[in-house]
Write a structure and sequence with these properties.
Chain lengths: 514, 424
């Protein structure tokens, strides 16, 4: 143990030079011992009210104005005032520099924890995870939000607050369907197209064989079918990004309305990776703060008392109640992520035979950090759980799988438990629970009746019998019809193409698109 | 790394969003505010507080699924083995089944600040059209600071401005500093060289002479604060509460009257910076009393309304000049008045009181179970109705129940309502 002089702080008080020392100490460990690669940090100290502000605008420091944010603020505030809900210790933003908001009333230990957690854990994850790299632009997001805010304000000045509000309401209702789930195919330019046609022709000539003429072709497509295929191709259908489709194709939207749809779509896209990496993101940050805090204590830079304070809040953070506990709501992403990552550490350094069998690639390789850095960079929740949830962890958490089929009148079936027969099924089901592809309804724009009444046709592929909530679906379709300005229909079909339900909605006047 | 202290940033960043939310939910919130205020004591009406509105109108719809086959992995197995069938908990909620969001949460609860509450509470109310009485825009002269001048009364000297100008002048004219002179004098003390001494003496003399020529403060430095008279709208009001406390007034009736006065007070405080209240109670003679005596003091006797009106007009004359004060009066009574008094009452009202008042309301209070329709009109009611028919700007209502107070108040002050023409 080193002398007391090396301590980062004593007691609970902190000031700005001390925060700087804490940050530098954390950074030293994060860079040199954990090998983390982060965006530059910007730490901002805020009050409880500002934290509530941040809550209601999705954590972002600036956002356009909309009544729904006011509603969320009022809601959070009511809970906070009553003491029903504490506030987060921090909020961190995926931007470069990476902004972490720290609450002013945190003690020095908590500030250390939070800096280690957010400014290094989350920060590393944002910078390195493939989803964030692929879908978000950390350098540009704050500028974009600034643009969005002033653009919306300008639109309000020019076109009236009501018109903008109506458009934003509609866009928000469709926000969860304004996301590109796959990186799109780039349209070739004319020259490249020509070149490719050339190559294809040359290929056909070189491969010419008269024998192919004798192979029977498929049934001839009717002119009508060809026509509809052509139309759908021109419109880029089927299209699951409804906001994108409206922005590009909706016949009667004003240019500014298209831009607003685009803004909402971009913001939805920006948050999409976060919804897919809750467990990993929090797990990474928790694992990182745990390592850093332990190391600081080992180095004698954190006193025993402060370390105990840290352990207490850490334990609260990673607490997982059992399913029959009144406090249970779902898996705690902090707890699950942290547990799997600690388990990976164990497998890498101290594997058992079972682990060698299940994780031959990483078991016993000895070096934890390279393995974890690889995991953090290349997985999302669903793939992370389906790869790294070990039998041992399933046993120690005593996980089990329930299958609830409404058609089964006897009750809910226990489909698998933490035994040799159940490991794989539990792991698959848990991974699926975190797959947004399963939890978000799969709705696509399938066609537009261009020759007739311009009806926009949507289709919901029903998975496992889960149909749309009717009142909500009608409301969202109403918003959609207002933007489209012609009728909109939605059919819900099951896997066998049986139509389960059909909605048709007509637009309300032409308020949305004058 | 940067550390930014954001605590000093202007707060209430989401105020605008909040206002938008309240504007959008206006009708709902207003309904909720009225409902909340019914259950409250009127003196707490001013406090803000939690309201809850049905979430329906404020709902943000999303496509979301429900029902169907559900699979769920849970931690903490105690005794289940594969293949067990568990009974469904009632209505599919609770353990084992996904806690699917219901169709909607019942209510959306949030806290309104005091100002928001009062604004919503009184939102669709307005003071009666005052311009007609030519008193609403009554203005008085007020003083306002208007820069500096080179002349004025000594009481108005602006010291800081004067000293600043003096300093500028001294610097510009290079007035020698006392420190420089002191330093030279000290050097003179030390100096033994005659030639140097003579030189120093000459220099000190020159500097002293210059310091004398350039005074520390010169009359041209002096500045005075200047004031201008500006017309100021009258921002004060006086509210007269007149009440009959004769034996026929029960506690219930007094309570009704009290509630009405409270509302009027809340309403006036929102419009005027300064509101005074004068309580006049009367039997067959009137006296000005304090609030407690007004509502609770025992009194008995006959009933002479004219005495109260006489007292009010005396007080107005002695203490509240109509050009300086907006005068409001509310009278509560059970309607009894001696027949002989009617003529005097009518005359006092039309000649002395109504011309100077912005608003005069008469509230006839009745017993809780009494019906306004079956009883014949009281003597006072008949009298006032006749005055109204002759064109006197009176407002009058009958009230039996506590719950009627707010609607009646509301009706009296409703926005853009032509109350002179409306039937009672």
């Amino acid at each position: 143990m080193t002398a007391t002089a090396d301590r980062l702080f004593e007691g609970a008080d902190w000031d700005f030079p001390r925060l700087q020392r804490i940050h530098d100490a954390c950074e030293e460990i994060a860079r040199n011992e954990l090998g983390l690669d982060t965006y530059p940090n910007q730490i901002e100290i805020i009050t409880a009210e500002q934290m509530l502000d941040a809550y209601s605008s999705a954590g972002m420091p600036l956002f356009y104005k909309h009544w729904s944010f006011g509603k969320h603020f009022a809601h959070h505030e009511a809970f906070y005032r009553k003491g029903l809900k504490g506030l987060a210790y921090e909020i961190v933003i995926n931007s470069s520099p990476c902004i972490s908001y720290l609450m002013e009333e945190n003690t020095a230990t908590m500030q250390t924890l939070v800096i280690a957690h957010a400014a290094f854990g989350h920060n590393h994850f944002f910078k390195n995870n493939y989803l964030f790299r692929q879908w978000t632009d950390a350098d540009g997001i704050l500028d974009y939000l600034d643009f969005a805010k002033s653009y919306v304000a300008q639109c309000e000045e020019r076109h009236g607050r009501h018109a903008v509000e109506v458009t934003l309401d509609a866009a928000h209702a469709l926000m969860s369907h304004g996301i590109d789930r796959y990186p799109g195919k780039k349209n070739l330019d004319l020259r490249a197209e020509e070149k490719r046609a050339e190559q294809r022709r040359a290929h056909e000539q070189s491969m010419f064989n008269d024998l192919w003429r004798t192979v029977p072709a498929g049934p001839v497509k009717s002119a009508e079918l060809l026509n509809s295929e052509r139309r759908r191709k021109l419109l880029g259908l089927p299209q699951e990004n409804i906001l994108y489709f409206l922005e590009k194709v909706a016949p009667r939207l004003q240019p500014w309305q298209r831009e607003i749809l685009r803004i909402v779509r971009h913001i939805a896209q920006y948050f999409y990776p976060q919804s897919q990496t809750k467990v990993m993101n929090e797990g990474t940050a928790t694992y990182v703060h745990y390592r850093i805090m332990n190391r600081l204590h080992q180095q004698g830079r954190l006193s025993d008392g402060n370390f105990l304070e840290f352990l207490q809040s850490h334990t609260n953070v990673v607490f997982q109640p059992d399913f029959d506990d009144p406090r249970f709501s779902d898996f705690n992403p902090y707890a699950l992520g942290f547990a799997i990552m600690q388990d990976i550490e164990r497998i890498v350094t101290n594997p058992e035979d079972e682990d060698r069998e299940w994780f031959p690639d990483i078991a016993g390789t000895g070096e934890v950090m390279p393995v974890l850095r690889h995991v953090w960079a290349n997985y999302r929740d669903e793939s992370f759980i389906s790869q790294f949830l070990s039998p041992r962890l399933m046993r120690s958490w005593r996980m089990f799988h329930l299958h609830d089929d409404p058609a089964e009148s006897a009750g809910i079936k226990v489909d698998a438990i933490h035994d040799a027969r159940g490991y794989r099924r539990i792991r698959r089901e848990l991974a699926r629970q975190y797959d947004v592809g399963y939890s978000d309804p799969n709705i696509e724009v399938v066609d537009v009746d261009l020759a007739g009444d311009r009806r926009l046709m949507l289709r919901h592929m029903v998975v496992k019998g889960a149909q749309l909530n009717e009142t909500d679906a009608k409301r969202v379709l109403q918003h959609l019809a207002d933007l489209w300005t012609y009728d909109v229909s939605l059919v819900e079909v099951d896997a066998k193409d049986n139509v389960l339900k059909e909605y048709v909605v007509s637009p309300r006047g032409l308020a949305a698109a004058a | 790394m940067f550390i930014v202290d954001r605590r000093l940033n202007p707060g209430s960043k989401s105020l605008e969003n909040r206002q938008r939310f309240l504007r959008r939910a206006r009708a709902l919130v207003q309904g909720a505010v009225k409902k909340t205020s019914e259950g409250r004591d009127i003196k707490d009406v001013l406090e803000g507080g939690e309201v809850s509105i049905p979430l329906d109108g404020m709902h943000e719809p999303r496509f979301r699924t429900q029902g169907g086959t559900r699979d769920r992995v849970l931690p903490g197995n105690k005794k289940f083995v594969e293949g067990d069938i568990l009974p469904r908990p009632n209505e599919g909620r609770g353990r084992g089944s996904a806690p699917g969001e219901g169709d909607s949460e019942d209510d959306f609860r949030f806290v309104l600040s005091r100002d928001e509450f009062v604004n919503l509470f009184l939102d669709d109310l307005e003071l009666p059209d005052l311009a007609k009485r030519r008193l609403a825009e009554a203005e008085s002269e007020g003083l306002q600071r208007a820069g500096y001048s080179t002349s004025g009364s000594p009481a108005n000297i602006s010291v800081s401005r004067t000293v600043r100008l003096a300093l500028a002048r001294r610097v510009a004219l290079k007035r020698p500093r006392p420190e420089t002179i002191a330093q030279l004098e000290a050097e003179l003390e030390e100096c033994r060289d005659e030639a140097r001494r003579a030189e120093l003496i000459a220099e000190v003399e020159a500097l002293k002479a210059k310091a004398k020529r350039i005074p520390f403060i010169d009359p041209i430095d002096i500045r005075f604060r200047r004031f201008e008279t500006v017309p100021k709208p009258v921002a004060q009001a006086v509210m007269f509460c007149l009440m009959d406390v004769s034996g026929s007034m029960s506690e219930h009736m007094k309570d009704l009257a009290k509630r009405f006065y409270m509302l009027l007070y809340v309403f006036l405080t929102r419009r005027y910076r300064h509101v005074e209240i004068v309580f006049i109670r009367h039997t067959d003679r009137a006296e000005e009393v304090d609030e407690d005596t007004f509502f609770h003091g025992p009194a008995s006797g006959g009933t002479m309304v004219s005495s109260a009106l006489q007292a009010m007009s005396d007080i107005v004359r002695s203490r509240f000049r109509p050009s300086d004060w907006n005068i409001y009066a509310a009278q509560a009574s059970d309607g009894d008045n001696s027949i002989a008094d009617s003529a005097l009452t009518g005359r006092l009202l039309t000649d002395n009181i109504l011309p100077v008042s912005q608003f005069f309301a008469y509230l006839e209070v009745g017993e809780a179970n009494g019906s306004t329709f079956e009883m014949p009109d009281s003597s006072l009611w008949t009298l006032y109705q006749r005055l109204r028919a002759d064109g006197a700007p009176l407002s009058m209502r009958k009230v039996n129940e506590r719950s009627q107070i707010f609607p009646v108040f509301h009706e009296l002050f409703q926005r853009r309502r032509n109350q002179e023409k409306a039937a009672p």
